[in-house]
Amino acid sequence: MKEEILERAYHYALGDDECVLRSNEIRAKSPILFVVLGDKVKESIKSIKTEFSQNVMNAEGIMYLYIGLEQGIEDGQTSSLVLPLGKGEEKSSRGTLSSQLFEEENALKILNEQITKVREAILEKGKMFHYWEQIQVSVITDASEEMNSLLPDIVVLLKKKLEQDFKQVTVDLFAVLEETIYTPLEQAISMSFFKEIETYQARDYCYEKPLELLEDGLKLNTVYNQPLFNLTFILSDKKENGQKIEHAKEKHYETIAAFNLLKNREQKEIELAEAREQYNNSVFMTNIMSGGEHRFASARLAKVKKPRVGIYLATAYHLFNAYKEELSYHGIKESKALLEAVGLNEMRLSSLIDDIIPPKENLGEIYSVISQSIGFRELKGLSFQDAEKQLYKKSLEDFFSANFTKSSERKLAEKVSKEKIKKQIYAEVINHPDYGPYALEELFKIEQTRAIDKLREQYGYEIKQLEVTLDEKENKSVGEVIGSKFGLFDKKYLRDVKGYLVSEVYSLKYERLEKKLKLKAMETIKDILEELYNEIKIELKKLEEVGSLLKTLMEEANKFEEAYLVQNVNEYYEKLVHNKLEQLKKARGEHFLLEEKYMGDITSVLSQSREQFLEKLFILQEKYILQDEKLFRLSFEEELLARANMLVSYEEKDVAAKSELYHMLYLSLEENSKPCVYLDSAATTHRYEEKYFLGDRKSEFMTYAYEKDKTSRSYKLAYINDQRKSSLEKLQLMGGFKASDLIFTRTAQRYYDAYIKEGYLFSSNQEISKKGD
Fold this sequence. Notes:
This protein is an alpha/beta fold.
């Protein structure tokens, strides 16, 4: 269930992005192709595709090509190529891959066919782009990936194929460097890779091989005389200060997507007219070069965004609490009224018994029961109990049992059947807005159980008292009672004995039956109530678990965000949910949540699984709560300021709102966008930087950020207009360093030298490696 809840929250967050995307209408101006080389970076396709789908209207026109030794995914945008190349011996596996490409019978053919297929797929997407003369290709690989020894073969062939249809083909390289986890061998391979890149990027680099294969099998000699890549980026898992970057790969993929959009974003006329500065690829390339020599670049994207998943979960949690509050017992009526509602007080029990027991006047029917013919002298010395036996045998007992006891017990069983009592309790307590299911718990608290026990003891005591009195009445002498008052005529005597039995004996038996029926009804209702309470308690516990899970997920969703970005999320959205519900109550009724089309009463809850309950909660939340533009659709800055100020006094709001929060936003974006490479201090000589804010150009924060250090900055600063309501972003580009400037290469070079001495072949031309020694 946890996964389903999070999936719903993420889905909502993405849906929020799609609304912004449609309003922004951001598009890539020309085709983009991502070539993912090697199994270690295969996941980049999913991440980059997600980034583009959230930010670009024509994202479906962007293509992806995976080349590796494992099978990748195939869809309308993604092609996979598994080259039939063997790993070979460990010492020479990387160095022989390129030669295998030309020696294996089908390898080169498959590569040509797949690249041709990708080119045709790109051409089919042509209508999605307004500018068709150029294509941007981004090659992504891991520095330690053996497959990247095929870079020149793949990139040159790709360029030749694409140049058949595009005037300009630019290829950038993005090398992921996981220096914190590499083994010594992987570090040595990475070192070889850097040496190769510096060779590929030399002005006099030349490639010549029979690379192109025609459909009839004819091979064409392919000559290529220029640097292989436009820009080469190194994206390490270490910051500039040497600290490790958590979840570095995922962040690198976001950076790659952001840079490609920066470079290939279609600008509207109004944006071009109002632009302060835009990205210029030629300018960036020129500034990072040193005397025309190749230099590496790095980049990093920082995001500050609404904690939308946490917000969704907070809203769901507080809506859940509001519904639980509707179900809860608030003691609106006195506890006596609660006992009355479940039928456990004297009035309700008396009413129940009055409905089922024949009226007391019916005891007069005893006069019609035929008695035995016995003379006065035989009865005078007997008790009334013995006299009854002599006169009636068991006839009076049978009459009373049949017409009063058994008939009443039968009717009682019908009246207090489990089905009827449960129905009554549901109607008068569980589903009643004044009580609710939690009121059942109140019935089992000390105060209520004492009241119930007191009533039970009262009935028990009254029954005993009646039995004592009854015993006295039955054991009185007939002669003593009748003889002292009446004459000794047999007919009159018999009538007076019957009168005594009706008014003095069976009248008491009737009263005793009433008390016994009340006691039995009480015990039956209490047993059914306890059984129902235990059933409800289990379901309420499940309901509580849902609330606890929502709370836990809400807290976990915000745990890894910076504190100031998630401050007061819980309190703020509790208030907003409350305010919105108050509006809805005025329009739909005080207890509208208990209506079936919203959440329904507890009967509805009990008939559903927890998953069904949550689905109903989420639909209610999305349809009636989150759609409120004024409350839940504020911009990133407005929402952040509102949350920050909710616990601040009115006079202090301006202080908390801008001076502090804008400063914290600025510092967070600056710190988290610093390029991810750990360089030697001497590498700052040719360092060149560009920084780009992505956000609403009209926002106060964008103005604040642009003016922050305007007079002292040594880097280019620009903004890209993006009227998103849920985030701000900053992309930093930095270049001008060599591979030897990386702290990583200090150790990697030593490992490289050691493995070379041991006979390892890292490159198809080991001379490439020797040039860097």
